[in-house]
Design goal:
Protein name: Flagellum-specific ATP synthase
Enzyme class: translocase
Largest sheet: 9 strands, mixed
Shape: elongated
CATH architecture of the largest domain: 3-Layer(aba) Sandwich
Keywords: ATP synthesis, ATP-binding, Bacterial flagellum biogenesis, Bacterial flagellum protein export, Cytoplasm, Hydrogen ion transport, Hydrolase, Ion transport, Nucleotide-binding, Protein transport, Translocase, Transport
Strand content: 15-25%
CATH class of the largest domain: Alpha Beta
Radius of gyration: 26 Å
Family: Belongs to the ATPase alpha/beta chains family.
Number of domains: 3
GO molecular function: ATP binding; ATP hydrolysis activity; protein-exporting ATPase activity; proton-transporting ATP synthase activity, rotational mechanism
Number of strands: 19
Number of helices: 16
CATH topology of the largest domain: Rossmann fold
């Protein structure tokens, strides 16, 4: 028996090539300010994972984010750990990739891929780079096929396409998350990936109970990181959700990716950038915070090689209802369409409170028929005529008959509001939306 064990041990040792190995570099914790960890003797590239052994002997995860002289700067992934000076810092090879696969469908995970739903561990068989794989822009397919969102105003007036990137911008409490839930319920896709980044913990459970219930849940993956988590976890949540969507797109599937909200991701990068000493620019955002937005959004789109696609929707919080906020402006410049929600419409009880005049789908002319496009342009013309003269009309300073265009806009205003309005649980498919638009507003 002893000889058999010795033979097996020798066989195992023969497979180890010591010449190809190297020393495992172990560092020591030199400083910690509550957010940033500094280690000496830990020479690892940016983006590498690390494990810091705290005073209780537990391994706390961190990520290398920069350098200061001969010290390595790391951002903690575990908050409120009892760190101690001189603590052991070990490399962690799991930092740069995420576990992906069909096993994730129907599950809820955190930024590190750990399950939150109490359904046991997830044995995903594949790995995907957290930051995505470099792509050739010529491999991106054109957006030529309409994507049914189940929302009449969007299907008819802001028609989305398969592989389009859309930003939903509004102030707080105007209905961004509700509109996103309507899109989830009505979308025709194979997989739904949702990133709930920096939201209230209550909203996470509410979102799962009301917007991802039933059959929709079984084809969905949710990555949730509430607002009280460290900034690096909030940033990694958005990147993990995007990486999961990229894996399913590579498999040739039609994916709907929703990130709520892109502003919280930018806020997380702002905290990281300022702690690293970056200079603040507009509204305190360092260059890295605004530079992160196009890098994240550009990972979505249609793939001409596999036939898969990621149709992405990003909610953007307009601080103080300012639609010229740096994050809103940066996102609007890189996406293929934007939906602006109006607080004024919401206060009038119009939901979804879509401001038709300020919203736009850049791919709509490529995915709809000419009669549909003419009817949408006619409704937008009536909308613009009313908004331009709203003050005169409400003050009674406008005299009927002065301008036939304004007369028609005033007369049709109730019809326009009724067309845009839709119940939260109501689903209107693309064909029905277009047919009603042409019947009521066709030229």
């Amino acid at each position: 028996m002893t000889g058999m064990l010795a033979g097996r041990a020798a066989a195992l040792l023969d497979t180890i090539d010591i010449a190809q190995g190297g020393p495992r570099r172990i560092g020591r914790l030199a400083a910690y300010d509550g957010l940033m960890l500094e280690a000496t003797g830990f020479h690892q590239p940016i983006g590498s994972g690390a494990r810091v052994i705290d005073a209780e002997g537990n391994a706390c995860r961190a990520e290398v984010v920069g350098f200061r002289g001969n010290r390595t700067l790391m951002m903690a992934l575990d908050s409120d750990a009892p760190h101690i000076t001189g603590a052991r810092v070990e490399p962690d090879s799991r930092g740069g990739s995420v576990a992906v696969g069909a096993e994730l469908l129907g599950r809820v995970v955190d930024a590190l891929g750990e399950p939150l739903d109490g359904l046991g561990p997830i044995a995903a068989a594949h790995r995907w780079p957290l930051a995505g794989r470099p792509g050739n822009p010529l491999n991106r397919a054109r957006v030529t096929e309409p994507f049914d969102m189940g929302v009449r105003a969007i299907n008819a007036l802001l028609t989305a396409g398969v592989g389009q990137r859309i930003a939903i911008a509004a102030g707080s409490g105007v209905g961004k998350s509700v509109l996103m839930g309507q899109m989830i319920a009505g979308a025709e896709c194979d997989v739904i990936v949702v990133g709930l980044v920096g939201e209230r913990s209550r909203e996470v459970s509410d979102f799962l109970a009301t917007k991802l219930s039933g059959a929709v849940r079984q084809k969905s993956v949710v990555v949730a990181v509430p607002a009280d988590h460290p900034p690096l976890l909030r940033l990694r949540a958005a990147m993990r959700a995007t990486a999961i969507a990229e894996f399913f797109r590579e498999a040739g599937l039609r994916v709907l990716l929703l990130i709520d909200s892109l502003t919280r991701v930018a806020h997380a990068q702002r905290e990281i950038g300022l702690s690293l000493g970056e200079p603040p620019t507009m509204k305190g955002y360092p260059p890295s915070a605004l530079g992160l937005i196009p890098r994240l959004i550009e990972r979505a789109g249609a793939d001409a090689r596999t036939g898969g696609s990621i149709t992405a929707i990003y909610t953007v919080l307009a601080d103080g209802d300012d639609t010229d906020d740096p994050v809103v402006d940066t996102a609007r410049a890189i996406v293929d369409g934007h939906i602006i929600l109006s607080r004024s419409l919401a206060e009038q009880g119009v939901f979804p409170a879509i401001d038709v005049g300020k919203s736009l789908s850049r791919v709509m002319p490529d995915v709809v028929e000419p009669d549909h496009l003419r009817a949408a342009a006619n409704l937008r013309r009536l909308w613009a005529a009313y908004e331009e003269n709203r003050d005169l009309i409400l003050m009674g300073a406008y005299r009927e008959g002065s301008d036939p265009r304004i007369d028609e806009a005033v007369m049709r205003q109730a019809d326009i509001r009724a067309f845009i309005s839709q119940g939260q649980k109501e689903r209107v498919d693309g064909g029905e939306s277009v047919a009603r638009l042409i019947a009521e507003f066709g030229a």
